[in-house]
Design brief:
Oligomer: single chain
Largest sheet: 6 strands, antiparallel
CATH superfamily of the largest domain: ATP-grasp fold, B domain
Distance between the termini: 21 Å
CATH topology of the largest domain: D-amino Acid Aminotransferase, Chain A, domain 1
Number of helices: 12
Radius of gyration: 27 Å
Helix content: 25-40%
Number of domains: 4
Length: 430
């Protein structure tokens, strides 16, 4: 392993895939993580400390040239594509980029980007895929499933229950494939193939709850059928690094391959929590480093929902925070507030504890493992106002009491925050 961290760029970094890549890579001491995007309105700047923008879209003729310039300017060692279109373009351009790309060979990426090519390629090798229905057939069974040949996230898919519905949707999008309807349970199978073509990891997860085509509740399951299909796909396609495929059961409960993708999936996080950090493994593999797995043999279930990140236009070098019912609530440390306070320590922001308590505050803080955290303890008398101890104006004030927040804000004009707003002060960028 190099003494200096590898510079790894995720693109586009604000996608669901890019955010999973951030979570997977940002804490590694061997990686200096960068994010880039073509779309200025994305979530990337809220989590990537080293965020780069100004790139054209991958469909623009000068994309590769400008992407290469960004790589050269920042000394990037490895690129992690985080969208299906980016996977295909960067896989083709890897020789021009002067760095490693976490992706399978371009021929494989071409097949994966088209459902029709994927189905033909796998069917020729004896792997069960959805039956493709000829729209001109005189008779067919309904419902049928309509799916774009090139797409992601269930965008543009329809279940047509009559021929009229099917033709209506097909007139709107002539690229739709007519496929057999599969009513059973759906799974995603996360895989990792190393540079020696060894299938190192196969992890099946049930897509227990899906929103907008994204699996937001995932349960790892043991499924010998999925593992056997993974081995067949690995033999049938030249894959490298992280990849996944989706299965859905037919009327008889038999698994059918819906798609194969040469990238990480957003809900790969459930297996990352168990020890299989497939994004990090793929970066190492792209650098021709051997990897080894350690998986915790315990049960876990993951559910995802929208998460809010914030960007403030205030600066402060001091934080004043109340003790009772703010930092200590119900005899327990407010861990979210504690996380923010330790963020302040990392950033060199001075911390001031405000309290009306009598007795040994140092002993109290030691009991909660908080001793040494504060630069100053401001003790107030019964008649003292909290604003009287705030001597630094480049500050914020945190207190659960509305009356005290109102008094401080009116007296000093500094930003004040209740406990529910503390999350907005946490900087998630790494």
């Amino acid at each position: 392993m190099t003494a200096q961290p590898y510079k790894v760029l995720v693109f586009p970094c604000g996608s669901e895939i890019g955010l999973e890549a951030h979570a997977a890579l940002s804490w590694s001491k061997h990686i200096e993580l960068y994010g880039a995007s073509s779309n200025s309105e994305n979530h990337g700047p809220f989590v990537y400390r080293r965020y780069l923008d100004g790139l054209p879209f991958v469909t623009e003729p000068d994309f590769v040239e400008r992407f290469r310039a960004m790589i050269d300017e920042n000394g990037i060692d490895v690129v992690v594509p985080a969208h299906d279109d980016a996977v295909l373009v960067l896989a083709h351009a890897r020789e021009k980029l002067g760095c490693k790309v976490v992706a399978s060979p371009p021929e494989t990426c071409e097949v994966c980007r088209s459902k029709a090519l994927t189905y033909r390629h796998l069917a020729e090798r004896g792997i069960r895929v959805p039956k493709i229905i000829d729209p001109s057939a005189s008779s067919m069974e309904f419902p049928v499933f309509l799916k774009p040949d090139v797409g992601q996230g269930s965008r543009g898919v329809h279940v047509a229950r009559t021929s009229e519905e099917a033709r209506f949707y097909s007139q709107k999008d002539p690229s739709l494939l007519w496929l057999e309807y599969l009513p059973g349970r759906e799974y995603t199978v996360d895989c990792f193939t190393d540079r020696h073509r060894n299938l190192v990891f196969v992890g099946t997860r049930e897509r227990a709850r899906v929103q907008n085509g994204i699996s937001v509740r995932a349960r790892p399951v043991k499924d010998a059928r999925a593992e056997a299909i993974a081995a067949k796909i690995n033999d049938a396609m030249l894959l490298r690094g992280v990849w996944f495929f989706q299965l859905k059961e037919d009327c008889q409960g038999e698994p059918v391959v819906l798609e194969v993708a040469s990238r990480i999936a957003g809900s790969t996080a459930v297996y990352r929590s168990l020890g299989a950090n497939l994004a990090l493994m793929s970066v190492y593999d792209a650098l021709d480093l051997d990897v080894e797995l350690l998986i915790n043999d315990v049960g876990v279930e993951m559910d995802r929902a929208l998460t809010s990140r914030y960007r403030w236009d205030i600066t402060y070098r001091h934080v004043y925070v109340d003790l009772d019912d703010t930092l200590i609530v119900g005899g327990r440390v407010n861990t979210r507030l504690a996380a923010f306070l330790f963020q302040c320590v990392n950033d060199g922001v001075k911390l001031h504890l405000v309290t009306r308590r009598s007795g040994d505050i140092g002993e109290l803080l030691r009991g909660y493992r908080l001793d040494g955290l504060f630069d100053q303890v401001c003790r107030l008398g019964a008649e003292d106002t909290k604003s009287s101890c705030i001597t630094e104006r480049d500050c914020v004030f945190i207190d659960c009491s509305f009356a005290d927040r109102l008094a401080v804000h009116r007296s000093l004009g500094v930003p004040v925050f209740d406990l529910d707003a503390v999350e907005s002060l946490i900087d998630w960028r790494r």
